[in-house]
Amino acid sequence: MTDLYQSQRAMRNMRKAAMQRGVIAILDVGSSKIACLILRFDGDHRLSDDGVGSMAGQSQFRIIGAATTRSRGVRFGEIAVMNETERAIRTAVQAAQKMANVRVDHVIASFSGAEPRSYGLAGEWDLADSVVTEQDVARVLSACDVPDLGPGREVLHAQPVNFALDHRSGLGDPRGQIGHRLACDMHLLSVDGAAIQNLLYCIQRCDLELAGIASSAYVSGVSSLVEDEQELGAACIDLGGGTTGISVFMKKHMIYADAVRMGGDHVTSDISKGLQIPFSTAERIKTRHGGLHATGMDDREMIEIGSDSGDWEKDRRQISRTELIGIMRPRVEEILEEVRSVLDAAGFDHLPSQQIVLTGGGSQIPGLDGLANRILGQRVRLGRPLRVQGLPHAATGPAFSSAVGLCLFAAHPQDEWWDFEIPAERYPARSLKRAFKWFKDNW
C-alpha cells in the first residue's frame, strides 16, 4: 500500500510538471482499439470552487493530435502479448505526434478489466483546533480503515466522496470550516496489480513515462454523464470490445465500479462461429447489417457474406438479416443480464434517480436501447462523450467516451488519497518511515 501511495504521488507530480510544460498524451488501451490524443494546455491553472477536486487545479486544453489503431495483444482489457501491444501503442503515439508536430514524453493511460472491486470506507478524526486544515483532511482520510484487499491487489482510485463536520453532512470541501469532529466517506477501487504492472512496463518499453492511470469505466462516466445525472445518481455502462465497464455516480463522485468480462468482440465471435467466416468478415457484417429487433422486412433483406476462401459456392453465400439478428441478440441479452445483476448487487435501485447511460463502441448496435429498456429499466439513454475543443469529428462517437473522459480527468482531476500528505503513523506497520519516526521519537 505504501509503495502504491508513493508511486501515485510521483505520477501526480509528473502530471503537473507535464501540464506546466504544456503538452501531455492520453492513451486509451482497449481490447478493440488503442487511441492516443495529445493535449496542449494554455497554462491557466485556476482553482475550482466545486468542493473536493479543488486541490489539483484546472486547466483549459485543446486536442492537437489524435490517432487510433487496431488493438493487438490485449484481451479482456488486459495485456496478453507484450510485444504486439507495445507495437500498437508505438503506432498510435507516433501517428498522434506526427499530426500534432510535437514530441511527448508523458502519458496518462486508462484500461478496462483487471477485475475491479469497490469498497466504501469511513473514518473520523477529532480536531485539535476548531478550524479544519488540510492536515486534518489528510488525517481523517488516513483514519479510514482499509480492508484486506487480497494478494496481488492494488488501489487504483481512492476518492473522498463526502465529508461531515459534527452534525452537518454532505460537505464538498470542509477546509476552513469550524467544528470539533470531522468524518469522511471514501470510495476505494482496487484492481489486479499484475495488470497495472504489465501496462506500466509496456509504456516504459515505448520510451514513455506514465503520469497517471485511471479505470476506463470511471472516465467513461465522467465524459458521458451530464451534470444532473452525476449529481442525482446514474450508472454508465461502457460496452467495449473485450469488457463491459459499469460505474455508478452520485453527488458528482464515483461510488461504485465493476466490469463484466464480455463485450462486442464476443458478439463478433458468435457471428464468426455461427456462419463459419473469419473474425474480420464477421466484424464487417456486424457493423454494417447488425441489429437486435427483427421485422418482416428483415426476412427479405439478404446479406452477401463475401469471403476469400477460394470456394466459389461458399464465398457467394447469402444470409437473411433475421438470421444475423438471431445470432447477435442472445449474446447481447446475456451481457445486459450480467450488467443487471451487477447493478442489483450494488444497490442501484436505492438511488433517487435510476438513470442508465449506455456508451462505448458496442452501444452503437441498432435496437440496443429498446432491449436495454426491457432488461435494465425504463430510464435508459445512449450517451456520447462531451464535446472537447479540437477533437476530430471521427473521434466524437460513443467508442471514444473513455478517451475523452481521460482528457477531462487529466485537466480537472478530483482529489484522491495521495493528493494529501498522509501522516507517517498511519502507514502500514512494516513501513520503514514509521520505524524511523518511532526511533526518532523514542531515542
From TrEMBL:
Main location: membrane
Gene3D superfamilies: 3.30.420.40
Signal peptide interval: none
Transmembrane segments: none
Annotated keywords: Cell cycle, Cell division, Cell membrane, Membrane
Location(s), subcellular: Cell membrane
One Gene Ontology biological process: cell division
SUPFAM superfamilies: Actin-like ATPase domain
Residues in SHS2 domain copies: 24-224
Topology of the protein relative to the lipid bilayer: Peripheral membrane protein
Family, similarity comment: Belongs to the FtsA/MreB family.
Assembly with partners or alone: Self-interacts. Interacts with FtsZ.
Described purpose of this protein according to its UniProt entry: Cell division protein that is involved in the assembly of the Z ring. May serve as a membrane anchor for the Z ring.
PANTHER family attached to this UniProt entry: CELL DIVISION PROTEIN FTSA, CELL DIVISION PROTEIN FTSA-RELATED
Name recorded for this polypeptide: Cell division protein FtsA
Lineage, opening ranks: Bacteria, Pseudomonadati, Pseudomonadota, Alphaproteobacteria, Rhodobacterales
